[in-house]
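Design request, tokens follow.
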């Protein structure tokens, strides 16, 4: 079985186990004997995998390293986190809707009253949890929030989960009546709660972090800043192409973690980041002073050419998406890989690292650099890549750039018959 599918397989099994138990507690002929029982049963069925997925989503957001093994990289973990979050919301919304529908057999008024707080505190907890979850996930999916506000709102997911867990355990239901089902949910809830507490409340005490000091701040063309840092103690070990979460300790930038690709090769003691000004936080990084401290968490990601046995590779970089490829290219001198890099930028002046990359290519005949300047040559396409290198079926393809570019190229590559397992991308907008 391929690594990318292991995590999803585990999620499906864990989500369906309580459903399997529910199916044998009471004969189905009684559960679906009339409209009231059928609507109630469907509502109950929605809640069982819904609460399991809610717990698993908190675990997916914990950034534990073992998750990378299950999904094939932290980027894919956060894609799963995004998808599972949406599915959780759908299931938990349909849970009360079907329960409310069951009361239509009594009266429309009784069905409407079901959705309002009353004397049953367990039901009130469920209403509060659902409203909070809906608000948080709607903000995530439909409102473009600044990064720091988005991260802050996500801290309330733990509160929604806590309220929903109390509702699930104390409301009169199959969970409260069946020992096996109740014990299963107690374990699932404990796992989700533990992940949330570990990451959000106790992370600063238990999550390993590396401390670096800013050594150089180099302004580059195109509103790009290169930050060079030296370790306070031992330097961090990483693979070329990996990324880190960085929190700069300075009054000139906000106290918040952001993900950035490492651009220095692992052989260097100093750690380099190359950042383009795309917002308030990244725009203020050029205001940092040498000697400012940085707390680093990581490294993360499987976006490295060294993680794949296939040595025939295509790298596609769009704009500042060149950053993970810089670290990789800077390690190519003595390695037997055959690599074609497609470097896309609006114009040549924005291809900041082109001269260095061409210098690496001049010393390594197995590394070829192709440039695409969109203002004069149009956008890079999978057809252009195929026309340049030939049949794409035997290549491992890495893509990093603006989200629309990556989405479009991946679709084009799949239409040309490239297996999705050979297409790898780094998508920080999901982190």
């Amino acid at each position: 079985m391929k690594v990318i599918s292991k995590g999803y397989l585990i999620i499906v099994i864990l989500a369906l186990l309580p459903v399997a138990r529910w199916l044998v507690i009471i004969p189905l002929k009684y559960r679906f004997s009339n409209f009231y029982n059928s609507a109630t049963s469907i509502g109950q069925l929605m809640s069982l995998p819904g609460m399991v997925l809610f717990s698993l989503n908190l675990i997916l957001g914990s950034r534990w390293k073992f998750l990378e093994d299950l999904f094939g990289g932290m980027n894919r973990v956060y894609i799963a986190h995004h998808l599972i979050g949406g599915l959780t919301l759908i299931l938990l919304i349909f849970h009360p809707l079907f329960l409310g529908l069951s009361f239509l057999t009594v009266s429309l008024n009784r069905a409407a009253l079901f959705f309002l707080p009353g004397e049953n505190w367990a039901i009130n907890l469920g209403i509060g949890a659902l409203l909070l979850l809906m608000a948080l996930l709607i903000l995530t999916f439909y409102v473009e929030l600044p990064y720091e506000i988005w991260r802050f709102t996500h801290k309330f997911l733990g509160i929604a989960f806590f309220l929903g867990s109390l509702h699930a355990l104390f409301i009169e239901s199959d969970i409260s009546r069946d020992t096996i089902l109740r014990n299963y949910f107690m374990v699932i809830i404990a796992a989700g709660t533990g992940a949330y507490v570990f990451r959000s409340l106790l992370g600063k005490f238990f999550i390993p972090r590396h401390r670096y000091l800013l050594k150089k701040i180099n302004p580059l063309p195109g509103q790009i800043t290169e930050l060079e840092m030296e370790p306070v103690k031992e330097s961090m070990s990483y693979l070329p192409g990996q990324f880190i979460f960085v929190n700069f300790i300075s009054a000139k930038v906000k106290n918040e973690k952001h993900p950035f690709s490492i651009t220095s090769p692992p052989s260097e003691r100093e750690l380099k980041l190359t950042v383009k000004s795309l917002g308030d936080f990244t725009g203020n990084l050029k205001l940092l002073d040498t000697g400012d401290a940085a707390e680093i968490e990581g490294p993360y990601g499987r976006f490295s050419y060294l993680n794949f046995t296939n040595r025939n590779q295509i790298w596609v970089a769009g704009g500042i998406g060149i950053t993970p490829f810089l670290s990789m290219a800077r390690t190519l001198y003595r390695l037997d890989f055959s690599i074609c890099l497609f470097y896309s930028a609006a114009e040549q002046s924005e291809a900041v690292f082109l001269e260095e990359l061409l210098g690496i290519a001049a010393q390594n005949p197995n590394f070829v650099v192709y440039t695409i300047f969109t203002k004069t040559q149009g956008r890079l396409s999978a057809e252009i890549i195929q026309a340049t290198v030939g049949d794409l079926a035997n290549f491992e393809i890495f893509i990093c750039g603006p989200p629309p570019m990556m989405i479009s190229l991946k679709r084009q590559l799949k239409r040309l018959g490239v297996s999705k397992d050979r297409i790898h991308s780094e998508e920080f907008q999901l982190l």
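Comment from the thread starter after seeing the answer: thanks! Residues 263 and 323 are 6 Å apart (CA to CA).
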